[in-house]
Amino acid sequence: MSTTGHWSSRSSSPRKLRQARELAEKIFGGRATSYNPHLSLMYGDLGETKRNAARQAIEGTPFPPFVPEVLEAVAIEGPPDRWPSRMQLVL
């Protein structure tokens, strides 16, 4: 089983991310009940102790504002470094 850790971005432009999400839903179909922009920071089979340690380490880190310029949709097949790009949207 694979687990993913997420850091929720309080980005200065969540509106643009939501607009990109809405466009992707129109293009690909489907509808999610809610959407919270985030940045995935870790993947893999990690125990709860390691996930909690990583979460604590990043929660105390002051990150600079994050304003995305490109949204990329990938197929999540195989290892992450080999996920094929399906589409890119310039925001």
Give the strand order of the largest sheet, numbering strands 1, 2, ... along the chain: 1-2
Helix content: 25-40%
Instruction: Give unreliable regions as ranges.
Output: 1-12
Query: Main beta sheet: strand number and arrangement?
Result: 2 strands, antiparallel
Kindly provide the radius of gyration, computed on alpha-carbon positions and rounded to a whole number of angstroms. Answer: 15 Å
Could you tell me how far the N terminus lies from the C terminus, measured between alpha carbons in angstroms?
33 Å
Enumerate how many helices there are, as a single number.
Answer: 2
Strand content: 25-35%
How many structural domains? 1
User: Mean pLDDT, rounded to whole units?
Assistant: 75
Count of strand segments: 4
Q: Structural class from helices and strands?
A: alpha+beta
